[in-house]
């Protein structure tokens, strides 16, 4: 409720205050802030996410061609994620008179003396970077000087008031990281091509399409045909997390201990291999992960010996 109330206050003058804050943060060389009535606010209403996405693209084209300040309030953008469109709705997008586009993120956490919580700012930057990536193909299609600026305007309450304050957040690192992550994703069509012929996850075999009649063993076999990429974070977001966790545990996979640990262990993909490397029974001594494990095992053994000696009468 606080976030919605603050966002409404920041936009209640048609975007003039947001653009004034943006011009202040851009400093010298930026166009002067608009006066009353100097900001266009196109209507973005349309039917369905596809219609809203198309209406947003048209509004961006028209605003860029007009060469005026414009504020798009809650536009709809589409981002291709492994070949499937994901629809996104940023708080706002500002169109500059020179054709540049700036993502605006409005958050309810406070900005005290011009600084805010670093973790929250980082999360806002990652979110804005996704919006910037979704805007890039639209700018390429429009051309005519349209470009996405890789710095977002973060708007927060000033100190302990409800007045808006703002800062420019550099998105270049987040944009590059997110682009690499998206490029590494495997498309759903590619995953489906690797499944046995006739695999389906449909619960209903009846003609009405509503009554679950599929045998449980057939459904379990279909789910088992897809590889499990479990991590503890899945428990908070996926209904199949317990199923994938059981499969990962049965395979003795180190993913069950977390993604961060999996990344540190390099080529050691099973817990048995990790324990063997720590004991000096397997692994390349030149591997940094193996060397760290053996050093940790020696320190543990020395600590246990010291504790045992101290407890003897």
Mean pLDDT: 85
Order of helices and strands: HHHEEEEEHEEEHHHHHHH
Number of helices: 11
How would you describe the shape?
globular
Unreliable stretches, pLDDT < 50, 5 or more residues? Answer: none
> In the CATH scheme, what's the topology name of the domain at 2-184?
Lambda Exonuclease, Chain A
Largest sheet: 6 strands, mixed
Strand content: 5-15%
Distance between the termini: 64 Å
User: What is the name of the CATH architecture of the domain at 2-184?
Assistant: Alpha-Beta Complex
- Class by alpha and beta content: alpha/beta
- The CATH class name of the domain at 2-184 reads Alpha Beta
- Total beta strands: 8
- The share of residues in helices is 40-55%
- Rounded to an integer, what's the Rg over CA atoms? 27 Å
Secondary-structure topology with pairs:
Elements (H helix, E strand, L loop, with lengths): L1 H10 L4 H11 L21 H19 L3 E4 L3 E5 L2 E5 L3 E4 L4 E7 L11 H25 L4 E2 L2 E7 L6 E7 L1 H13 L3 H6 L22 H9 L16 H10 L8 H6 L6 H8 L9 H24 L2
Parallel strand pairs: 5-6, 5-7
Antiparallel strand pairs: 1-4, 2-3, 4-5, 7-8
Helix pairs in contact: 4-5, 10-11
3D structure, described in words:
With 313 residues, the chain is an alpha/beta fold. The protein has a domain at 2-184: Lambda Exonuclease, Chain A (Alpha-Beta Complex), CATH 3.90.320. 45% of the residues lie in helices and 13% in strands. Strands 1, 4, 5, 6, 7 and 8 form a 6-stranded mixed sheet that branches. A two-stranded antiparallel ribbon has the order 2-3. A hairpin with a 6-residue loop joins strand 7 (151-157) and strand 8.
């Amino acid at each position: 409720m606080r976030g919605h109330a603050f966002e409404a206050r920041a936009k209640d003058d048609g975007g003039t205050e947001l653009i004034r804050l943006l011009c202040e943060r851009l400093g010298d060389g930026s166009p002067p802030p608009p006066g009353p009535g100097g900001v266009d606010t196109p209507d973005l209403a349309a039917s369905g996410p596809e219609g809203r996405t198309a209406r947003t693209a048209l509004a961006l084209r028209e605003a860029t061609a007009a060469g005026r300040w414009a504020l798009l309030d809650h536009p709809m953008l589409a981002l291709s994620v492994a070949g499937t469109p994901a629809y996104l709705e940023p708080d706002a997008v500002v169109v500059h008179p020179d054709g540049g586009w700036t993502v605006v993120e409005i958050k309810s956490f406070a900005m005290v003396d011009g600084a805010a919580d670093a973790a929250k700012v980082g999360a806002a930057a990652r979110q804005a970077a996704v919006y910037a990536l979704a805007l890039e193909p639209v700018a390429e299609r429009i051309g005519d000087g349209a470009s996405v600026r890789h710095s977002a305007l973060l708007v927060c309450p000033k100190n302990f008031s409800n007045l808006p304050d703002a800062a420019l957040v550099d998105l270049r690192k987040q944009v590059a990281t997110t682009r690499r992550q998206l490029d590494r994703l495997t498309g759903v069509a590619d995953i489906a091509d690797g499944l046995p012929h006739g695999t389906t996850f449909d619960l209903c075999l009846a003609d009405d399409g509503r009554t679950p009649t599929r045998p449980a063993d057939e459904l379990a076999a279909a789910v088992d045909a897809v590889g499990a990429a479990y991590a503890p974070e899945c428990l908070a977001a996926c209904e199949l997390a317990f199923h994938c966790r059981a499969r990962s545990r049965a395979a003795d996979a180190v993913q069950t201990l977390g993604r961060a640990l999996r990344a540190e262990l390099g080529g050691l993909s099973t817990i048995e291999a990790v324990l063997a490397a720590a004991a000096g029974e397997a692994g390349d001594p030149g591997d940094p992960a193996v060397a760290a494990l053996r050093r940790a095992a020696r320190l543990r053994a020395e600590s246990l010996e010291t504790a045992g000696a101290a407890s003897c009468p």
